[in-house]
Design brief:
This protein has 2 helices and 7 strands. It has about 170 residues and is of the alpha+beta class. It has a 5-stranded antiparallel beta sheet with strand order 2-4-5-6-3. It binds coenzyme A.
Length: about 170
């Protein structure tokens, strides 16, 4: 579905970059006090959606979350920081990258916990897919992410096709 011209003006990556912070509480952790993977996945989805909403200025649904590695554990009392950024817009979908860090404010350390790529699709209240305005990378890192996102989209497309063929 087409949207009016103002809403379709290209926007820089920085306009929708988002940050979310959570303190790990006992209810977020396993009996050994380590953050549950499922809880972190939920936070990643939320952080990704923030950037996607801000960029598209619309409702979005999560279409896919790529492979996820948990590099470093986070524990009860740690501060978890999630930074999200729209890497690239296609038509009605966009790739958002989320990078997660764990900060221990007692010993002043900050470590990389996980990174994820999510695909969000913009929709209206009637569930119709919407065109998303282009995103403009401005820094070398944003340009690299933009290029990489194009390659990842192709990989996702091939993987979807492969799974559909297997189902037949
Ligand atoms: C995601 C969803 C909107 C895709 O709808 P669809 O009609 O099957 O998709 P289409 O083939 O028309 O593709 C629409 C866009 O989504 C992208 N897309 C669809 N499935 C995808 C997947 N598995 N991975 C990545 N992108 C995907 C397409 O590439 C296309 O992007 P483009 O317009 O930028 O080229 C639909 O499957 C859906 O609503 N799923 C449930 C979402 C949900 O409940 N999420 C969790 C809660 S938020």
């Amino acid at each position: 579905m087409k949207r009016n011209d103002d809403l379709m003006m290209p926007r820089p990556v920085r306009d929708s970059q988002s940050e979310m912070a959570e303190i790990v509480l006992p209810n977020d952790a396993n009996p050994l006090g380590a953050l549950l993977g499922g809880r972190l996945m939920h936070w990643i989805d939320m952080a990704g959606a923030m950037a996607a909403h801000r960029h598209s200025r619309n409702y979005v649904v999560t279409a896919a979350i790529d492979h996820l590695d948990f590099v470093t554990p986070a524990h009860v009392g740690d501060l978890v920081i999630l930074r999200s950024s729209v890497n690239r817009v296609f038509h009605t979908s966009m790739e958002v990258g989320v990078k997660v860090f764990v900060e221990n404010y007692l010993v002043d350390t900050c470590q990389h916990v996980s990174s994820a790529y999510l695909t969000f699709v913009a929709i209206d209240a009637g569930n119709r897919h919407l065109q998303i305005p282009a995103v403009v990378p401005e820094t070398d890192e944003q340009r690299r992410r933009y290029e990489d996102a194009g390659r990842r989209r192709e990989t996702r497309r091939l993987e979807l096709e492969r799974r559909r063929t297997l189902k037949r």
